[in-house]
Amino acid sequence: MFEPILLKRASLPRSESIDVYLANGGYRALEKALREYRPDGLIELIRDSKLRGRGGAGFPAGLKWGFMPKEDVQKYLCVNTDEGEPGTFKDRVLVEKDPHQVIEGATIAAYAVGATRAFVYIRGEFFLGVKRWVKAIADAYAHGYLGENILDSGFDLDMTVHRGAGAYICGEETAMIESLEGRRGEPRLKPPYPAQVGYLGQPTLVHNVETLANVPHIVLNGADWYAAIGTQNSTGPKIFCVSGCVYRRGVYELPLGTPLSTIIYDYAGGVPGDKRIKAIIPGGASTPFLTADQIDVPMDFESLAAAGSALGTGAIVVLDQDTCMVDVARRTARFFAHESCGRCTPCRVGSQRILAILEGIEVGRGQPGDIERLQSLCDGIQGHTFCPLGDALVAPIRSSLAHFADEYWDHIERRACPFLLEEAPLIRAAYPVGGTARETKEDLAVTARKILVVDDDPDFVEVTRIVLESAGYEVISSADGGEGLSKVRQEKPDLVILDVIMRTVLDGLHVSQEMAKDPEQCTIPILMVTSIANRDYATLFLTDDQVRFDDFACKPIAPDDLLRRVKALI
Amino acid sequence: MLLTALYVAEHQHGYLSPEAIERVGERLGMSTTEVYEAASFYSMYKWKPTGRYTIQVCEGLSCHLAGGAESLVDYLRRKLGVDPGETTPDGLFTLLTVQCLASCGSSPVMRINDTLYENLTLDQADMILDELRGG
After folding, report:
1. A130 lies in the same domain as A222
2. Chain-chain contact of A86 with B62 (C-beta, under 8 angstroms)
């Protein structure tokens, strides 16, 4: 059992008061930092600890501190308490239960980078949080932990609370600075980064509450102690927020790299009614869905990126077998359409159009072509907006379409939400979903299915072979289109993976065309792969009805992605 | 500064009336247009008079999964006889739906003025409203 670090005091009575904080080791780190460290030494310490930002992006905190100029100019610190990512409720807990821990971390950070003014930007909706912040700051002043000449060190820091007014985007650091300056909270173009040009044009360090809460512990216990928690590059404890279809919703502090399944089953108690898990949102509404077969993924920055998603804020939302994924996408789209600031057309118009289509599909007014329209709207938004909000909307929608297209089709064909129909809501599952308490990858694998890989790139063939064979498939291969075609005839594979362009006489397109002519071969599913095309390229083939394929993927294909696609096809 | 000034003005005037906006502009040395431009970005300000109690019901994903967000809204809509965005004729309650209130671990939730009510059932919602009516 992991001993909580950040939430250690949270369960104590009156944990928010300065008395309880001081009685439990509070402000000792600040004393140590001011007496034993020069600012540079602290920056080095944080760098060695490999602490990474907990607000979503995971940027190394030590680097961020190092970016602050050394010159003697007015510098600022912003404490980001604008927690708004749906599913996330960790900062609220930290601020309501243990605000002094954050003040202590913020004061140490300010000392390290030479900031003498600190702003706490808190979500307007957090009434209790505002009260707790104001009280805690007043008490810290009274005890000499804020204000002039803190603990006789000669270091001054003033801290004030600034209340936001209901805008998710103000959690983005440059939007927050705009808002602090009394304007619309629209993000600025980066670079320059706030460390160069921030509040009132001065260097500004912006940190999430949870990130700062880690700082006192690193100062007290050392960088090595901290770096030993978690994984190699995702160090330290993380507060995971678990909600949705689980027995015990709430916050759980665990080392980064803890398997998702451990959090869901051992801590949150699993899914009520022993229902199967259909999907999991691992890091808040803007992170792509994980599917049930990915439940053992370690919850750290690298592993989740490799799994095609992101750690985000560590907000885990569990969706069980009875959850309608179109409804989930619709609610996600509602949020982002509501929060789109309106500055960029792709996001402003695109989010509304995506929402309109999703609302239509959910209530049974979906049209054939809606899925393609959604895809094309996603294409139009992604990478074409000023700030990350556009991409934040696109990521979950795209992932929903990729994993759960069948549910969309069912809605459209049945002209209703199947989950609301009286009859058994049988979605044609694209792949086996979920598992009761402990379904493993082995249970999900389909054994003894034969897959033919036709590709002249030996590396791809080798990697594909390893991935597929380890999942229990039989793999045969050919580096030549002509030979591949004869193997299709002789071996009768259950699936053919075809490289589009090969340096041989017959390439993947030819093989597909030939297979289409043969009544026995024309039903074998084909997964087309290529390394030189993007998704748009696929539509070129669609115009030629002789070329048949059932799925299309761009190399490199992540192992999980490949297995998912293969499972969907056979 | 501006956001705080707007909160103060809203508190004094009940909502951000044209006079309130003008007054904020005067105090901060900004034109009325500038104040409007910034203020209209934020969703928490009230632009028209509201009831004595503003009820905000979360319709986010986690509250929905907790089995009640939508039914709570529907229930309050029927009980109060108003749609989200409207105020009861007696001027007591304004019903609003909001996105995430960062209480997903204790969903479904609603907020009435400064107070957050968590893990709600319809019966509890009833009791809370009756109490406010009486008080």
Report:
1. yes
2. yes
Q: What is the CATH number of the domain that holds A505?
A: 3.40.50.2300
Tokens of A53: 């930002």
Which domain does A269 fall in, by range?
237-320
Contact B62 A328 (CB under 8 A): no
Say how many CB pairs under 8 Å bridge A and B: 125
> By the CB < 8 Å criterion, does B122 face chain A?
no
Could you state, in chain order, the average pLDDT of each consecutive group of 10 residues for chain A (570 residues)?
94 96 97 97 97 94 96 97 93 96 98 97 92 96 97 97 93 96 92 95 97 98 97 97 94 97 96 93 96 96 96 96 95 94 91 95 92 96 92 96 95 91 44 33 52 90 84 89 90 90 80 85 88 58 67 81 87
**Interior CA angle at A127 toward A101 and A147, to 5°?**
45
In this structure, the answer to whether residues A44 and A188 fall within a common structural domain is yes
Q: Which residues of A touch B30 (CB under 8 A)?
A: 182
Domain identity same for A249 and A194: no
A41 and A164 co-located in one domain: yes
| B96 close contact with A: CB closer than 8 A | no
Q: Which candidate from B30, B45, B105 shows the least CB-CB separation from A89?
A: B105
| Residue A435 belongs to some domain of the structure | no
> How many domains in chain A?
4
Contact A2, A253 (CB under 8 A): yes
For residues B68 and B56, give the distance between their C-alpha atoms in angstroms, rounded to a whole number: 14
Distances (CA, A) of A258 to A2, A338, A379, B87: 10, 34, 34, 48
Cβ separation of A182 and B61 shorter than 8 Å?
no
Nearest Cα to Cα of residue A493 among A509, A508, A474, A511: A474
Contacts of B98 in chain A (CB under 8 A): 125
Q: Is the pTM of this model over 0.90?
A: no
Shared domain check, A31 and A87: yes
